[in-house]
Design brief:
The chain has 389 residues and is α/β, with parallel strands linked by helices. The protein contains 13 helices and twelve strands. The N and C termini lie far apart (51 Å). The chain has two domains: 139 residues, Aspartate Aminotransferase, domain 1 (Alpha-Beta Complex); 222 residues, Type I PLP-dependent aspartate aminotransferase-like (Major domain) (Aspartate Aminotransferase, domain 2), CATH 3.40.640. The strands form three sheets. A seven-stranded mixed sheet has the order 2-8-7-6-5-3-4, sandwiched between helices. Bound molecules: pyridoxal-5'-phosphate (PLP). The site of pyridoxal-5'-phosphate has 13 residues, from helix 5.
Amino acid sequence: MLRTISGFDRIGEENAFAVLARATALASQGKDIINLGIGQPDFRTPEHIVEAAIKALRDGHHGYTPATGLLAAREAVARRTLTTTGVEVSPDNVIIVPGGKVTMFAAIMIFGEPGAEILYPDPGFPIYRSMIEFTGATPVPVPIREENSFAFSAEETLALITPKTRLLILNSPANPTGGVTPKSEIEKLVKGLEAHPHVAIMSDEIYDVMTYDGEEHCSLLTFPSIRDRLIVLNGWSKTWAMTGWRMGWSIWPDSLYDKVRKLAVNCWSCVNAPSQYAGIAAIDGPQDDVEKMCRAFDSRRRIVVDGLNSLPGISCATPKGAFYAFPNIKDTGWPAKQLAAALLDEAGVALIGGPDFGILGEGYIRLSYANSEENIVRAIERIERFLVK
Ligand code: PLP
């Protein structure tokens, strides 16, 4: 009998991948499936970025790079951070990692162990809780409420901190809710955190460019009082439509940088070289495609929200960021995961049940509107036919 560590009894998954596999299987049987399940832009990676990767390979950049990433890539991230946040970071605090997920993996591995408590958003990206459980640390959900426009509450978050708290995970703009936490609330949180210097913060800012209705993303980097314990997660996947390239970056304080560097050396060695050159081109090149994509998401957002609000038993708050709608389905009488499964099997619409993002996700479903307007309209019609039946 093989004996493996107990973490594997607790580690979770990301159900969006299971839904994607089921949707793909149904489609291969000839079923017409509209996929509003997986969270990835439906746009192609802009051409100049693809060309930069091809050129890098042709130029012979196919070997290892430094474990923390090419200096040029880290410098590009520092330039981009200055542009988007106004904050100067040193390339020596930046690491290039294979996807946004790797930063949460590293941060949670660094702080999680039995006896430690880690605060994370619920509903939130499922891997936070999964990885916390894996390490044996105690996951402490921070409630993200519809009544609060799916922003986190500084007061509620601070009240959950104990002497055992090691790490607080924040995410705005948020998956799965599309919530954006206003600057005033973040200021309140940071003020409160100043009284808890034993708590590190990981701010997942992977949707930073995707905000709407004049809402502005507020980076935790703009608060000097917590910089010495702040990890910022970001990456190329969503902003430049590069989910399959596996390219992320994070910004670490001096005291933790060597730990993540060692994890890199022990696990992934470095991110593949041509992708790093593509990443530099993405940051330094024209941003028209990014702007075009965000405009498209904005207009789809209106269609999805209006459409959902016209359906019986469904009400949908207007998301202010990312590319997700998180409608309340409580009045349909359906448990969320059952509704999601029935909509896939019977109506051909793939979406995700709220409970896949945490206990507080019951009563909600997540739709990714990273799909064409035409498909979104067809999906809403199908959901309506299904609910009326
Ligand atoms: N953080 C959040 C909030 C996400 O929604 C995602 C992906 O859906 C990630 C991180 C991971 O991104 P990546 O695909 O670059 O690993």
